[in-house]
Amino acid sequence: MSTPNAPAPSIRPLASLRPYLAPYRGRIALAGLFLVLAAVTTLVLPLALRTLIDQGFVSPDPGERVMQMRQHFLALFAVGAALGVFSASRYFMVTWLGERITSDIKRAVYAHVLRQSPEFFETTQTGEVLSRLTADTTLIQTVVGTSVSMGLRNAIMAAGALAMLIVTNPLVMAQVLGGLVLLVLPAIAYGRRVRRLSRASQDRIADSSAIAAEVLNAVPVVQSYTAESREARRFDEATETAFHTSERRIRARAVLVAFIITATTGALLWGLYQGTQAVLDGRITAGHMGQTVVYVILLLSSVAALSEVYGDILRAAGATERMMELLHARSRIESPAQARALPAVHAGSRVKLQGVHFHYPSRPSQPSLEDFSLEVAPGETVALVGPSGAGKSTVFQLLLRYYDPQSGSIELDGVSLRETSLEALRDRIGIVPQDSTIFSASAMENIRYGRPEASDDEVMAAARAAHAHDFLQRLPEGYHTFLGERGVRLSGGQRQRISIARAILKNAPLLLLDEATSALDSDSERAVQAALEEAMKGRTTLVIAHRLSTVVNADRIVVMDNGRIADAGTHAELMARNGLYARLAAMQFDQAAA
Length: 594
Known about the structure:
ABC transporter transmembrane region fold; elongated; alpha/beta
């Protein structure tokens, strides 16, 4: 979604954070108030110091001098205490805002990504999304929760200190200010390079995160091919590339900081030198000089801090731009503004595909379905069979409206899929995919995923129907046993049966079975097949099967080849015609006999 040659980001993308700041206007105003009070209190310190120096030692009476000194020190302490209270309040408010706003952005981005169609994930790696949700939001949190506050505070102090220096030493500070303006211009020009490198650095970090996420999700495959060293080297290369890009960014930023601090120090020391000469000539008092020194230090430290903050803001601008790219991504598959309701059904759903032409967005020259037409009556069981790549799984993806066909129409219960809401459509469909997904939760919660409001008894009834009850009972904590990430504690067949139980619990009028028994042994397959046949009663079922023995009892078998329907009929009819189905069946049954 981003390239190394993308345009250099500016601070402008930070404006897109405005909708996330708006709900917290009151807290932002309060944080701003504490910030101003802390900055003003800091600026009052030099004035109190000047009063101490100029008035604390003037009385000839030692006792009165001690009392004056005590009063001045108490005044200084009061200023310091106020500074502590205001600074702590500012810190709490801005840190809370940083955490809160970052959490809101994460939630918004995550929810938005979940609604994207599979087309989005054809071009976007999961690891890159995770990088944006972690590394990029951390940068945004740093800016909202720290950098902006520090920047504003230092800007106020720098402006205040500069104003006081101009008021007390107008001629000298006019010279210094003119020099600073000349120094700022090259700093701004060089800042563009820092912005460009900041964006490139974040992109390279996302690349390495994407590699890590991909490989960690396929560790068994990696180890089975003894590819650990290869993958480690690939990650090393990506990490080194990210490091070298970051190194260039750090070097560029260091040069910028060094230039700003060195130039500013030179200009301000010139002003301080002029002030020292004024004390020696008797034009100002020692207290005035002390005040000037403190203001110079405040101005110098504030400008130095601003240069650091500016670098953070530049990085956060790049991070914000990347986050907004995700939020602005629009799925081609969306619910219509005025969705039609699906009619109530009692004996399964009616499915109709008419003249469907479809190719995946990433493969525009390779059609997956061509002039495909199929009608399934309510309560009918239809099996889709054929060689790999024939388009069987594509039919399921179109029925779930993960994609829309380039031409043709698809209807469910007489309503075009484009005219009904995605939620209503998918609520009417239960699916058992070939690769069973198990979440990092208990067995009970994994099955209940099919219907979150289901009771424990309903969950266990679905597990019994899927022949999962016995092995779940034998787990250490029964149905409440944590199954591990992606169900690593279960066998393939056990994961499949939990997936089947999940679909049975949903009890949808249209059931899609994609190789639902592919991971089961012969005994388990027979048991689960019986459970599935019971579950299929009263609903429409579409079955994808490579094992033809599992679909011989289907009401109709549709033979697919190269995205088209090559033949259709019952098992007996297809065998009698001695076509593609008969050849596939002969090969499988011969292999089984052997």
